[in-house]
Write a structure and sequence with these properties.
Blueprint lengths: L1 H18 L4 H11 L12 H11 L5 H13 L6 H16 L8 H14 L26 H10 L1 H8 L9 H15 L1 H12 L5 H17 L7 H10 L2 H6 L1 H11 L9 H18 L16 H6 L3 H19 L8 H4 L1
């Protein structure tokens, strides 16, 4: 019971720190001081939460904090067998580096590449998860390489549509392209998602196939840095979805609006906040009666994980960040523009 209570308290600590207005340095310093990374050799329950926090915070971290973090990652090698240690080190480095533009953290990149040379490890699709389920060809090559995909999108969209949404036989590698390649390309450049969204929307293919690709485009936008995208244009595309389609992808839409308000220090135009607040309120109004928490017994010792990663936990997380943003901006300026009943 003590161990279970400790895990729940630790998980709450992660969520509280992630949602707080702390600086990047302070968040990462908390991880370092708790020695959570060193515990990954025997306890992986907090792996996803920790890597999520690190990826979101690392770009804004100072050189001193980064050096402390690198040292603790290296120390994993002193606490377990070499193969497991290398896998833990590589997973942390791989996921963090995806949160930094232009591979600018040379020490981390060099350590990651050194581990790859010595252990034969390579980047995975989901290093922030210890286990996940997927189809047999999740790790196959895509239909075409990235350069060819982008060239087809620009110069021969009809050919790209025929590859992504074949009339008859489903080619090997299609799942990989849709589930992994498209989100990654959209994360790298949100405009890829906008262009692909439009040609898929106008393709005349079955609505369910179109929506599958649109959801993966949304997943890519979730991973984009908010300051790097034109929100109003994306909002317009989401608003084009039918009510039924929007319901089908609502979890991803909620993740997207949450991403926009995660950084409490970021300046967000009033019209953008109005849209995200309206979506959050609409989702709650339409779906609150439908939610049923299942598998109580399975999650009785860890209630945070299912509620954080399933609706309406994602929606609650939006309001946590939104309130933090409001505290930083609106209350500080003496302007309280959001209705209380919109939050509660």
């Amino acid at each position: 019971m003590v161990a279970e209570q400790y895990h729940i308290a630790s998980a709450f600590g992660h969520f509280a720190v992630n949602a707080s207005g702390w600086s990047s340095d302070k968040k990462i310093k908390w991880i370092i001081d708790q020695r959570i990374i060193l515990g990954f050799t025997s306890q992986l329950d907090l792996w996803h939460e920790t890597l999520t926090l690190l990826r979101k915070s690392i770009e804004g971290a100072s050189a001193g904090i980064r050096n402390e973090l690198i040292q603790q990652i290296k120390d994993i090698g002193n606490t377990d067998d070499p193969k497991t240690s290398a896998a833990r080190q590589h997973g942390i480095l791989d996921w963090m580096l995806r949160g930094i533009q232009d591979n600018s953290w040379k020490e981390a990149l060099e350590l990651k590449e050194s581990i790859e040379r010595e252990s034969g490890l390579s980047p995975q699709s989901h290093p922030d998860f210890c286990t996940w389920h997927g189809s047999d060809d999740d790790f196959s090559s895509g239909l075409v390489d990235n350069a060819t995909f982008l060239s087809l999108l620009q110069n021969d969209p009809e050919q790209l549509i025929s590859l992504l949404m074949p009339i008859k036989d489903i080619p090997f590698g299609l799942n990989h392209t849709i589930q992994y390649q498209i989100p990654q390309l959209v994360e790298d450049d949100y405009r890829v998602g906008m262009n692909l969204w439009k040609i898929v929307r106008d393709s005349g293919r079955p609505a369910n196939i179109i929506l599958t690709i649109q959801q993966e485009i949304l997943s890519g936008w979730v991973r984009c840095k908010p300051e790097n995208i034109e929100l109003q244009r994306i909002f317009g595309l989401i608003d084009e979805l039918s009510d039924q389609s929007k319901t089908s992808v609502i979890n991803t839409v909620v993740q997207f609006i949450t991403r926009q308000v995660e950084d409490a220090d970021r300046q967000i135009p009033e019209e953008d906040l109005h849209w995200t607040d309206s979506v959050a309120q609409q989702v709650w109004n339409e779906q609150r009666e439908q939610y049923v928490f299942r598998n109580h017994e399975e999650w009785k010792h860890d209630p945070i994980t299912p509620t954080r990663n399933n609706w309406p936990g994602e929606l609650a997380w939006y309001w946590i960040h939104r309130i933090q943003w409001r505290k930083t901006h609106e209350i500080k300026n003496g302007q309280v523009s959001m209705k209380q009943n919109s939050i509660f």
